[in-house]
Known about the structure:
Blueprint: H1 2-12, E1 21-27, H2 32-35, H3 50-65, E2 70-76, H4 81-93, E3 98-101, H5 105-114, E4 122-124, E5 139-141, H6 146-159, E6 168-173, H7 177-189, E7 195-199, H8 212-215, E8 220-223, H9 227-237, E9 245-248, H10 257-263, E10 271-275, H11 284-297, H12 303-322, E11 334-337, E12 340-343, E13 356-361, E14 364-365, E15 368-369
Parallel strand pairs: 1-2, 1-3, 3-4, 4-5, 6-7, 6-8, 8-9, 9-10
Antiparallel strand pairs: 10-13, 11-12, 13-14, 13-15
Helix pairs in contact: 3-12, 6-7
Amino acid sequence: MLNLLMSFLLLQLPAFSSEKVIIAVLSTFEKPEKLGENFRNSDSEGWDDIEANLRNGAHLFKAQHCTDEVELKDYDTKGTIEGTLKAIKSAEADGAKLLIGFINSSTILTINKLYPDRKIPAITTTATNDEVPSINPPTLQMAFNNTVESKALAKVLGRIPKRSKERMFLLTDVTNPFSVELSQKLKKFTSAKFKELEYSTPLKWAPRNWPIEELKKATALIMTGEGAEVLEVVSNLSKFNRNYVLIGGDAWYRGNITGYLPAKGVYIPDTIAMGHWSIRFQDRKSVEFTTEYRKRFNTGPGGAATLANDAVMVACEIWKKKRSLRFEDFIGPSFHGVTGITHFTPNGAQDKRRPALYWFRDGEYHDEWL
């Protein structure tokens, strides 16, 4: 009788399958030099490319903490839209339940337009455009968005010395949607006064309409574009002026322009940038992650590694509890990882993510969560 009762009770329990679930990690295996300077991941001390950082961070969490039921499988995007679409279709054919990758906003936004019928949820890593989160096709955003970043930039402008606000310039790349959006939002959230200059990429010093003599006396430069343009402007301007604050966002791939510029023979003593995490953070999770990453990959991690690591953490926790990785499974719970609290809103955005501030002054880094 007891055996019959036990058999009956066991039949009432959810039938959790031990079958493996595949999580697809999308990245390119192309070398950074083939993709351009903007694929460099300059907040990793080893100058690894950002795509390798993404892969490494994802696999590090899986190797350390995730159940054997979860299989992380790499798919090569070739660094192109066509390659990314092919990788997604291959992952679908393999039965993958989740996609992790997409370092920039333009890729995932283009993919979602070209393939609106995608059913597998995707988690982007460093994509920050406000339009990235989507219920259909299901897209979750790990990073802070451009609105959060522009508010953080406005906050930074309130913290720089008064003398640095005397002659500020805002430089916008009109050919870069990220740069345009960030500049527009920054103007909305700050009362600071600056002269606006525009340029197109590739940038060669200097556009004819730029007031060069005024720039030589600048007390602050705000550049919302990419790292390569920063180098072009700063390396030329430094011949006349180095006594200004250089300020930028996370598009400087991925923040440590203060380490990149000296490597190119340029030194600006007061430099501010942003990213998704800092290798110099000393909290327990950051130290443990950096230590394990160095041990396994023989270099330091970057922001893409931490976001991919936390994306896998979230996915593993959800799979363990729900045996499902649907879009709606991610909405609601909060998770504390290397990059802080991950909490998805109903449309797939983050509402608790904070940018990391990298402020290099007086020969030292002063990094913090904003």
